[in-house]
TrEMBL record, chains A, B, C:
It comes from Novosphingobium chloroacetimidivorans. Pfam families: Hexapep. Keywords: Acyltransferase, Amino-acid biosynthesis, Transferase. One of its GO terms (molecular function) is serine O-acetyltransferase activity. This is serine O-acetyltransferase.
């Protein structure tokens, strides 16, 4: 969602300045009712309101930061087209300096929101430390992404080059966002991390919670509809296809009847597992190393290593000549 | 789809002004053929062509209007970052005045398109009435959205705050768009409504027809692939997951062999129903209150209240050790 | 992914020019490590690096070109709102001239990348020939799209007009992109074609490889999650719904153990076939003309013409009264 109305390019209607005093469209009553709703909401949700009601990270600004980090990680491919071999390092230097400053501002907003009582200076310093720590991880993130790209290239007959994978495959876009978001999640900026995940979800249809742990050489093909939950753990060289869900089976309630947050409740997928399109694996189950899970399989229990799990489909299909009555779906 | 080529930032190539008289890229033949196709199309589809061929609402401009309405509904979260507690009402006032003016122009285009014979003044007045009526509903829409946000927060263990739900959950983005679009659909601007729905569909992968009736406390988790049809009716506190379809089973044909439009053909989902990922419910069936529909279930008949419907899956799964022959899918 | 950081609207922080010499955010170490990773990568992947490491088509620029081509194909609907009947041809002329120039630059980048040894002049000329050939096909593409629009209108009870289909239906957006991309794929610009496909995939959730051959009157309803593979062949008047996969069953390996690229491995769908939501058809199988494939069906073998294939679902559904124990999913 773009949340920055662009005033410069979309000024008030020509006659609006003259009518500024007037109540164009009779909005005053609506404005008053909306203000009253906000006032009541903030009273009822005081714990939230106190948490820095004026502070919240911006999706639009974080989208910009991620673009810049992508450019710094892959300057000739994801940077602007003035980047050449001779000015790569200059570009990366300037871009990182800008991106880190902007990211620090967004992390500071999160910390002010979640810990308003800690004060401005402490949150400012914490935000700086988080961004510095992310920066130190960038070379490792680039290293992991190179392995992801190679895994995709090896796994998809339609890929013509590593560069095509990087530029064209939504799975790569999702994993770039995830590897950045997961690090920020661990470093103490879970909200900024979640927003970054959702930026990617909106662009790719791939929904990976920033808490999910994902090993090396991860490949998602096509990807639309993939869901990977907060506490999922994936080993190395895991490959998954569109529509795969690694989800929770049920949600334990605490003594007050409210959901218990953040309990381990998503699958563990060991090394070298392949999960085909539309498969659903739910709960804290373990899929043993080297297994293949067939398309549309529904699994809620452990599977030993080197298993092949698929639906016994044949017996359930009905094939008959077409007639003029009702369509099957 | 962005449909406004930005001329200012992307001028003609350097040598183009010199060649402006020339036929750069030999386009004249193509232009002529395209014009001929349009001329013929308009002759064949005269009923459409007469319906204000020059008038049609703009997806880009409606996206802007919806952004502004989102900002007015949640100024500190979905508005621009200069909004603070002290200037909230000023921001909401100005934003609504701008958004309503722009929306009126788009609704007027729809009315000119669908009822060109009614004349400019009548359509202009109708458009104004529709926008004023939408405005009066905004406080109620905000009230409903607050209940939706609380339902999502209660239903998802990964949500840390109500604000996180509002900013990060695509289901919320979809329901904001739907509640605005549904009202416009009822008020007589079904095309503007449909465009708003599709803006949300493109961003979230959640496809809710503006005609669908949805009660209070609606929560869609993850959401990619959800489809809710035109005549679906959902009660209060309904929760659905990614990939759920509430669709039509078949499409009755009228005496001319053409589809009958707008007949009730989608499910009725009563209060407090949960529908898990990938379930498909088709036709004008009723799912009784308090029922749970399991993942991937395919339902084309009524279900009584407080039912649990799920697949008897175990017997159909084949699990065997991996070998080197063909992959299962 | 937007890859053009917008420097004008987002200048360096106020104090940055003063610190330009300093190492803001201590990035020098990171920059050095990233440079070293790139250097090693280019050594290991020399065959790629030589392929014009500085040349690669831009997703952002191609998105612009496609917007312009859409405007030229449907000026009053997908063009900017200053277009009227009286200036349609002028608009189409200027827009095609700009779009072709820009597209030629992107195709040239692809050719330089894939065939750097052929030299600047040869690649420049080839790119021009490809764009001229695409231009000659535009009237035919418009003709096909008109038939697609009519097929959608006939097939969906919620559609009120042909224009609504064009503006609102993501399936139309996908097929516009595909018909352009497929032509570019055949003309020798497969990378530019693939990028155009992925622009559409990101916007619609519909993933059609540019290699897929698709006949007249193609209609995709809702569309999120649809995947159509590189070597699929679809006849005329095929209709598919959300979540349908036309995929590969397995990937033969060549003598070196690497995947064999581009072998026929996706389904052939004959004329007048309907495939309902969530169906999965895998491998080089043929679905005979006039068949209907039911929702969620999983098919890996041929089906004769005029078949109806659906799941025998009833026997596998368990319906029982709700209790307080664990949720079904």
């Amino acid at each position: 969602m773009e949340n920055l109305p662009d005033r410069s390019s979309a000024p008030l209607p020509a006659d609006a300045s003259a009518q500024a005093e007037a109540d164009l469209w009779n909005v005053q009553g609506i404005v008053g009712q909306l203000a009253e709703i906000r006032r009541k909401w903030r009273t009822v949700n005081a714990q939230h309101a106190e948490y820095g009601v004026e502070s919240f990270p911006s999706r639009v600004r974080l989208a910009k930061v991620v673009e810049e980090l992508c450019g710094a990680l892959f300057p000739l491919r994801l940077g602007p087209d003035f980047v050449r071999l001779h000015n790569e390092d200059t570009f990366v230097t300037q871009t990182l300096q800008i991106a880190f400053s902007r990211l620090q501002a967004q992390v500071r907003l999160e910390l002010t929101y979640s810990s308003p009582d800690d004060g401005r200076d402490i949150n400012d310093d914490r935000a700086t430390q988080i961004v510095l720590a992310l920066g130190r991880e960038l070379p490792e993130i680039r290293r992991l992404l190179d392995i992801d790209i190679e895994a995709a290239f090896r796994g998809d007959p339609s890929a013509r080059s590593l560069d095509e994978v990087l530029i064209c495959f939504p799975g790569l876009l999702a994993i770039i966002h995830h590897r950045l978001a997961h690090k920020l999640h661990l470093l103490g900026a879970p909200l900024v991390a979640r927003i970054i995940s959702e930026i990617s979800h909106g662009q790719t249809g791939i929904d990976i919670h920033p808490g999910a742990q994902i090993g090396e050489g991860f490949f998602i093909d096509h990807g639309t509809g993939v869901v990977i939950g907060e506490t999922a753990i994936l080993g190395d060289n895991v490959r998954i296809y569109q529509g795969v869900t690694l989800g929770a089976k049920n949600f334990p309630l605490g003594p007050t009847g409210a959901l218990i947050k953040s309990l381990p409740r998503h699958p563990v997928i060991e090394n070298n597992v392949v999960i085909y399109a539309g498969a659903t694996i739910l709960g804290r189950v373990t899929i043993g190393a080297g297994s293949e899970i067939g398309g549309n399989v529904w699994l809620t229990h452990d599977v030993p290593p080197f298993s092949r799990v698929y639906q016994a489909r044949e017996q359930n299909l009905v094939i008959r000549p077409s007639s003029e009555d009702e369509a099957p779906a």
